[in-house]
Amino acid sequence: MNAKNTMTIDLNSDLGENVPDRVVSDDSAMLELVSSANVSCGFHAGSPEGIRATLAAATKSGVIIGAHPGYDDYEGFGRRPLDVPAATLQAQVEYQIGALLGLTTAVGGSVAYVKPHGGLYNAIVADEAQAKVVVDAVKAIDPSLVFLGLAGSVANRVAAEAGLQVAAEAFADRSYNPDGSLVSRTEPNAVLHDPEAVAARVLRLVQTGQVEAIDGSLVDVDAQSICFHGDSQGSIDMARAARELLESSGVTIAPFAGAGAWT
Questions:
Q1: CA 32, CA 67: separation in Å to the nearest integer?
Q2: What tens digit of pLDDT does each residue of 232-241 get?
Q3: Staple partner for 242: which of 29, 56, 75, 199, CB 3.0–4.6 Å?
Q4: Using one digit for the tens of pLDDT, what is the confidence trace for 42-94?
Q5: What keywords were assigned to this record (predicted)?
């Protein structure tokens, strides 16, 4: 379903990534603004008790929960590219999703979707072999889980071909290349921070299905969900500004999966 035709969109954020010596996001504030939460499964960030608390808060607030598995890379926050053997990667992804399902059940909630994190997410945008491993892991745990990946990615195609329900994602706070890929975080201006500019960018995406690339060209992006990185500087201000502008422009904020899904 195309966001630009329905004037309905999901807003999501990566949460559950805090530990006492590495607080990267204000989960409580973000849960008031988003309709879906991608909750860390513990390999790249977060602690069992912190993840559990975020799951409980999301469940209480009615925010839809997604598992957010990544590479086993706590030191690098899961954002480094890693070469992981297929069998190892599949077991790691299955382990992470299973752990999050267990914790979510413990707090009275449910997991509706899976969105890979960081380096793994970026790898499967184009790497079909790794994408298949991740998709196989999702199917092995629960084939009813929706797969959330970058709009136009190889991962989304592989997931759809495997029979999973798929939702496409765009990013509010990241710059795009002309081909629709994300500008590497190592490049200048890869991450956006201005709340008003980000809000206008998000509204344009929802209304027209296009986002301005870093070179000024327009890229077609058909997305059902838009991500605000919880660890980005000014993330709360950006998400709040975007939500307020969307709602004042007649756009409905609703989850793409789980209870109340619009897709």
A1: 19
A2: 778 999 999 9
A3: 199
A4: 999 999 999 999 999 999 999 999 999 999 999 998 899 999 999 999 999 99
A5: ATP-binding, Hydrolase, Nucleotide-binding
Using pLDDT thresholds of 50, 70 and 90, give the confidence band for residue 6: low
pTM (two decimals): 0.94
Q: What are the backbone angles phi and psi of residue 105, rounded to the nearest 5°?
A: -60, -40
C-alpha to C-alpha distance for 6 and 8, rounded to whole angstroms = 5
Between β-strands 210-212 and 218-220, what pairing exists: parallel, antiparallel or unpaired? antiparallel
Burial 218-251 (b: 16+ CB within 10 A, else e): ebebbbbbbbbbbbbeebbbbbbbbbebbeeeeb
Q: Is 258 left (phi over 0), alpha (psi -120 to 50) or beta?
A: left
Class of domain 3-253: alpha beta
Give the count of beta carbons closer than 10 Å to the beta carbon of residue 110.
12
Q: Residue for token digits 């344009």? A: 204
User: 231: Cβ–Cβ under 8 A, 6 or more apart, which residues?
Assistant: 14, 17, 24, 25
DSSP 16-74: ---BTTB----HHHHHTT-SEEEEE-SSSS--HHHHHHHHHHHHHHT-EEEEE---S-T
Residue 156: closest CA among 171, 166, 141, 170: 166
